[in-house]
Amino acid sequence: MIETPEFEIARFLRRLQWAAVGLGAFWLLWLLSPILTPFAVAALLGWLGDPLVDRLERSGRSRNAAVIVVFTLMALLLVLVLLIMVPLIEGQISTLVKSLPGYRLWFTDVAVPWIEKRSGMELASWLDLGHLFELVRANWERAGGVATTVLGYLSRSGFALIGMLTNIVLIPVITFFFLRDWDLIVGRVASMVPRDHIDTVSRLARESSDVLGGFLRGQFLVMLILGVMYGLGLWAVGLDLGILIGLIAGLLTFVPYLGPASGVILGVLAALMQYGDWKHIAGVLAVFGIGQVIESYWLTPKLVGDRIG
């Protein structure tokens, strides 16, 4: 088929029209994001929790009873994380802020002379280390009082407080109904698909949901287990910031190689600044080495690989 100039112009205009529709939809979603956010979060939680609800329902429990069990477990997990992690992270940040003067001395008296000796560069002459560390300290002091800052902002902003409270109330309520009516919602959506395509669309949607949901749930468990394992391991080595570094490394495990690489770099630097010997550096390397072996040969194959095929 020979494409005439008129055909090319018509195709370009059609693409331009679809691009305008897409941009308009994106702009509308952005405007409505404060309203749609709790519904999107609740839908994600409902989608992730639906397989467990279905499993409990197949075991003989009613749909409502299964939803109550899953919803209660999710709520308890969230409360447990908040009660344990928030004070722990704030304490680690406070420790980091208090340790910054010592880190500054180590950097200026040990690290910079060592780099200058081996590279021949004069770092101290053009790098304002005092200003740099004061800037870092000021920002970390602000970050250390996360709860105070957030509460202070919310107390000054009535609309922000109302919005936060609304989301806190809405998300659990909507999540409960998404969990209860997820199969009904899926059925309603399926009823809008043309009948001659329903089998193919249902199969593809089911396979996509199983693979993506299994991957997300498995990856979350891997991140959680590695974060706890790295944090406890670095704490056992003796690092004051071991738990914070371990949690960061665990969360970044979602990106291949970034989690262990960042954990090793931060852990080695923390060991050098705190102890300055090879024994603790070897301990840091051992923690991440053992963690990588466990992740590669057990965690990822069992929790992620088996779920996505």
Layout of SSEs?
Elements: H1 5-31, H2 33-58, H3 63-119, H4 123-126, H5 129-144, H6 146-156, H7 158-191, H8 198-237, H9 242-251, H10 258-274, H11 278-308
Helix pairs in contact: 2-3, 2-7, 3-5, 3-7, 6-7, 8-9, 8-11, 9-10, 10-11
List SSEs in N-to-C order: HHHHHHHHHHH
- Per DSSP, what share of the residues sits in E-state strands of 2 or more residues? under 5%
Number of E strands: 0
Percent range for helical residues?
Answer: over 70%
Shape: extended
Helices and strands: which structural class?
mainly alpha
Radius of gyration: 26 Å
Q: Mean pLDDT, as a whole number? A: 81
Number of helices: 11
Largest sheet data: none
Query: Which stretches are poorly predicted, pLDDT < 50 over at least 5 residues?
Result: none
Instruction: Count structural domains.
Output: 2
Distance between the termini: 42 Å
Word description of this protein:
The protein is mainly alpha-helical. It folds into 2 domains: 35-192, no CATH class; 203-309, no CATH class. 88% of the residues lie in helices and 0% in strands. The chain is built from 11 helices and no strands.
Entry summary:
By secondary structure, the chain is mainly alpha-helical. It has helices spanning 5-31, 33-58, 63-119, 123-126, 129-144, 146-156, 158-191, 198-237, 242-251, 258-274, 278-308. The protein has 2 domains: 35-192, no CATH class; 203-309, no CATH class.
